[in-house]
Amino acid sequence: MCGRYASTADPATLAVELDALDETGDDEFRPDYNVAPTTGVLTVVARHDHDSDAAARRRIRRMRWGLVPPFAKEVGKSAPLINARSESVATKPSFAQSLRYKRCLVPMDGWYEWQVEPAPDGKTRKVPYFMAPADGSRICMAGLWAVWRDPRDPDAPPLLSTTVLTADSVAQLSNVHPRMPLILPPERWEAWLDPDSLGHPDLIVPSEDAVSKIAIRRVSEKVNSVRNNGPELLVPDDGAGDQMVLL
């Protein structure tokens, strides 16, 4: 599962790193250390220019985290579709069309998961862990996106939204949570984003090499509240013993 993550790169930086066009139009960007569902997040898509036969270009776009299928009658009446199970995504009506025609990358620094552990008062508490590459590099998750148009207001601008694919956790990540976001290594990006293909089932399986580079560290419980948002959320928790471990 992926229900909260950190994303600190601005669109211009991502555009340079990924050889992409920045189409966000953002006048000001603020690093987000506590990305929550339904907020606007950065994504990478590949699309052709209008009226051009040139190859598709990568583009940085901002989308709502929580996919809204084109057939939805309205937004916000049900739980946001922030994750899609890779094992069944091809057969789910909410995701099948996006899998064929609208695949994307969701860049992030790392993601959070929680474990229920005993508290000093004898009760239990939710303890957050942050999963990210040990070398501090950025990662990209496999994602899908969709375009929704309000049937009640045909003149309203379309809503772009996205979801993150998940898979059964493997290796050290299975010690934290049974599900994990699907990390796409760079060698899979071009095929995954290709708008002229109809999907690649062989790409939506975990990359053991990518997972092996992920370090797990316990972090401050401040991340439990979406009101908290700063670099202190990524600092290893002083009471955690080993502050960064490959479990």
TrEMBL record:
<dbReference type="InterPro" id="IPR036590">
    <property type="entry name" value="SRAP-like"/>
</dbReference>
<dbReference type="Pfam" id="PF02586">
    <property type="entry name" value="SRAP"/>
</dbReference>
<keyword id="KW-0645">Protease</keyword>
<dbReference type="GO" id="GO:0016829">
    <property type="term" value="F:lyase activity"/>
</dbReference>
<dbReference type="InterPro" id="IPR003738">
    <property type="entry name" value="SRAP"/>
</dbReference>
<keyword id="KW-0378">Hydrolase</keyword>
<keyword id="KW-0227">DNA damage</keyword>
<dbReference type="GO" id="GO:0008233">
    <property type="term" value="F:peptidase activity"/>
</dbReference>
<keyword id="KW-0190">Covalent protein-DNA linkage</keyword>
<dbReference type="GO" id="GO:0003697">
    <property type="term" value="F:single-stranded DNA binding"/>
</dbReference>
<comment type="similarity">
    <text>Belongs to the SOS response-associated peptidase family.</text>
</comment>
<dbReference type="GO" id="GO:0006508">
    <property type="term" value="P:proteolysis"/>
</dbReference>
<keyword id="KW-0456">Lyase</keyword>
<dbReference type="GO" id="GO:0106300">
    <property type="term" value="P:protein-DNA covalent cross-linking repair"/>
</dbReference>
<protein>
    <recommendedName>
        <fullName>Abasic site processing protein</fullName>
        <ecNumber>3.4.-.-</ecNumber>
    </recommendedName>
</protein>
<keyword id="KW-0238">DNA-binding</keyword>
